[in-house]
Amino acid sequence: MLSLKHVAKSNAFLSRLAIVISTSQSLSSSLSLYPHFYYTASFRSNQNTHFLPASTDFLASSFKDWFKLHNNQLLDRIFGILGAQVDDDLPSRRAADLALSQLGLRLSESFVLEVLAYGSDVLSCLKFFDWAGRQPGFHHTRATFYAIFKILSKAKLMSLMLDFLHNYKTQRYFHRVRFHDTLVMGYAVAGKPDIALQVFGRMRFQGLDLTSFAYHVLLNALVEESCFDSVEVILKQIQMRGLEDGITHSITVKNYCKQNRLDEAEAFLRGLMSEGRELDGHGVSRLVDALCKSNEFEKAGKLVEEFRESGMVPMENAYGVWMRDLAQAGKLDGALEFLRSKKSMEGYVPEVFRYNVLLCRLLRENRLEEMCDLLMEMKEGQISPDKVTMNAALCFFCKAGMVDVALKLYNLRFEFGLSLNSMAYNYLINTLCGDGSIDEAYRVLKNSIDQGYFPGRKMFSVLADALCREGKLDKMKELLMVALQRDLMPSTYTFDRFISALCKARRVEDGYLIHGELNRMNQVTTMNTYFNLIHGFNESKRGDIAAGLLIEMQERGHTPTRALFRAVIRCLCDMENPEKQFYKLLEIQLSHHEPNCELYNFFIDGAGHAKRPELAREVFEMMRRSGVEPNRSSHILMLQSYLKSERISDALNFFTDLRQRRKIGGKLYNAMVVGLCKVNRVDIALDLFREMRDYKIVPSIECYEFLIQLLCSSKKYDTAINLINDLETFGRLVTSFIGNVLLFHSLKTQELYETWIRLREVQDESSYGTSMLGLLVGAFSGRVTVSQHIDNLEELIEKCFPLDTYTYNLLLRRLSRRDMDLACELFNRMCKRGYEPNRWTYDILVHGFLKRGKKAEAGRWLEEMLQNGFDPTEGTLHLMSI
C-alpha cells in the first residue's frame, strides 16, 4: 500500500483514469467487474483514503493490455535467443543458430529490416545480420546493409563499423550485392566521406557508377560532415544522371540549413513549389527545425501554416518537428495547443515518437495531469506504444504516487516486452525507497544489474542510504561489492553512512574491512567515519585498534578532539598492561607532533577520566621535565583527575601547593568546588566557596548549581536558600537548573518551603524575584493555593526562571496528581511551544492514567511513547503488571 503522503495525489489520478477507462467501450464491461475500483477512485483528492488493491490490479491490467499492442512475440524470441548467445563461445553460437533456424523464419529484405528496426541491442542486431547473411536462399541488399550501418553509426561504434567494412571481402555474401556501392555507403555512414569518395573515384575509373540510393547516402554524409565543396560536385552528378527526386531536394535544404543559409533554403523550397516539383515534406521539416534552432519560432510557425495551406506538401513530419522543437524550447503549452488544434481540425495523429517528446517534457516539468490526459489519449486511440512510451508511463505512475501500479507493470514487463531505461529504473527505485519498500527497491536493482544497467552515483546513494537506515547491511554490502566490481566509486558520504551503520549494529570489524578497502583505493576516510570506527572499537574493548585509527586519522589530515583522545585512552586503560599501551600512544604522539601543552593535557584528561591519576601526574611531571610549562588547563585537569578518583587529600595537596606558589584564580576554585560536589564532599566544597567569597572571587554559576543541588539532596535547605540569596547579590538570575531543583524537592516535601518561610521571617526585606520563587515553591509544596490553570502556572514560573523540558515534566507530574485532562492540555501546549517531549514526559502521563485505572488511555500514550523510541520506567511497568 502507498504511504499517506501519496494518497491524495494517487486518488486524484485514479479518479481521472477511471473516468477515461470507464467511457471506453472496450473496457466498460471490465469496469463493472471492479466496483471497488470505481468507488474508491471516485473520491476527491482531499479524502484521506487508500485506494483498494483491486483498483491497482485493474489499472495495471488495463495498461498492460495497451502495452501489448507493442509486443511482437516472434521478434522478442529472436532477440531472446541472440541475447543468450555468448559472444566468443562456438558451442553457444551454434546453439543460437540452431534455435533461430527452428523458428522457421521466412527471410526477406522487409523482414530483416523489421528485425533490425525492432532491436535495441547493437550486438544482437549484428548477430542477426550475420546469421541472416549465412542462410541459404537469402542475400543481403543495399537496404539491409544501410540499416546495419545506421545502427552502428547511431551507437557510435565507428571502430567496429570500420572493421566490418575492412573484413567485408571475407564474407561469403559480399558478391550478392553491389560491392562498391556498399563500401561507399558504409564509409559514408561511418563518418569517413574521404574514403567513400576514394572508393567512388576508383569506381568511376573502372567505368562503374553508383545507384540512386548510394548517391543519396553519399550526398547526405557529405552534408553531415560539412564537406560542402564535395556536396556541390555529387549533387551535379545526381542531376546529370536524372536521379534528382524529393530526397535530393530534402538533402539540398539540409545543406543550406547546415550552412545557416536559411533564406536560400526557403527560396529553394518556394521555387520547387512554384514549379510544381515533387516535395516529400522532409525539406519543409528541416527548414522548420533550423528556424527553431535559430530561435525564429514565429517565422517557422508561419511557414508551417503557409505550406499547409498550399496543399502541395505532406505536413505530418513538419507538424511533428514543430511540436518537438516547441517542447524542447520550453514552449510546451504551444506544442500541446498545436496538437489539440490539428487533431480536432485535420484529424492529425502524431507518430508515437512525437507523443513521446511531449510525454517526457511533461514528466520533466511535473505537469502530471496533462501527461495523464496524453497517455489516456494514446491509449484510447490504440496508438501502439514503444519502449519510451512505456518507460514514461512507468515514471508517471511513480511520480503520481501510484508506485503500486508501476511495480505491478514492472513485474509484468516480460508479457509485453518492456525493458526499462535508466530514467525509469531511477524513478522506480527512488519512489520505492521513499515509500519504505526497501526490499522491493533492492530486488528491482538486482534485476536491473542482470539486464546490464547499474544506477548512477546519485541513485546508488539513495538506495544505499535507505538500506543503511533500515539496517539491511548484508544487502548494502552486496550492493557495494557489485558497484566496485563495475568501477563505480560511491560517494564518500555513502561509505561513511555504511560504516556508521555497521558500527551501530556492532559489526565494527566489517566496517574496518570497508575502511581498509578505501585506503587501498587511496580514498580519504572522513573524520566522522573515523569517529564511528574508533567509538565502535572502544565499545568492543579493542583500544589498540582504536589507538591505531586515531594515529591514522591524524596522518590523513584530521584533528582529533579531546573527547576522542579521552575515549581512546580510557579504553587503553581497561586493557591488559594499561601503562604500556598508554605510554606507547603518548610516545607516538610526541614523535609525530611538536610537544606542547595541549597534547600533554589530552593525556592528563584521558588518564583522569580513566581514574588513573598516577598516570595523569606522571604526564604532568613529564611535561615540566621536557620544558613545557603547564598552563591553567593543565592544573584544572590534574585537579579533576584526583577528584574523579575521590583522592581528596591529593587534590587538596595539589591545590594548596599551587596556591602557595602563585595566585589562584576563580577557574581553579570553581573546578575544585564542582569536583568536590560531584564526589559528594559538600562540606569541603562550601569551605572553598566561602574562601572564594572572602577573596572577592565571584563563583561561577556552575558552582551555585552544583552546591544547591547537593545541599537540597542533603536536606540542608537553609544553606541552599542562603546561596540563592547570595546569587542575587551579584545581580544574577536563577537558572532553569536551580529552579528545577527547587521545584523537584518541593514536590517531594514541604520542608523546603517551611525553611524558606522561616528564613524570610528573620530577614528585613526580600527581593521581588526571590519572593515570587518562594510563592512557586509553596505552590508546588501544596502550601500555597494557586489557580490550576496551565497559563497561570507557566507565567508564574517564567517570572522566576526560564522553562525547559524538565520544568514541563515537573509541571506534568504535579498536575497528573490531580487532573489528567489538565496534564494532557499542558502536554499539547508544551509541544506547540517547541519543547520536545522525552522519556519522562511520556512516562508521567502513562503512569498517571494507570494510577487512575484508565488503562485504555494509558495504552494509547504508551503506544505513542514506544513509537518515539522511549521505554517506560520500572515503576510504570510495575503498575502495568498489576
From TrEMBL:
Spell out the residue ranges that the record assigns to PPR repeats: 245-279, 280-314, 351-385, 421-455, 526-560, 596-630, 665-699, 804-837, 838-872
Matches recorded under InterPro entries: PPR_rpt (IPR002885)
Listed under GO biological process in this entry are:
chloroplast-nucleus signaling pathway; mitochondria-nucleus signaling pathway
Q: Which domain of life is it from?
A: Eukaryota
Q: Name one GO cellular component term.
A: chloroplast
Query: Does the keyword Repeat belong to this entry?
Result: yes
Any stretches that span the bilayer, and where are they? none
Q: Family membership, please give it.
A: Belongs to the PPR family. P subfamily.
User: What's this protein's name?
Assistant: Pentatricopeptide repeat-containing protein
Native organism: Carya illinoinensis
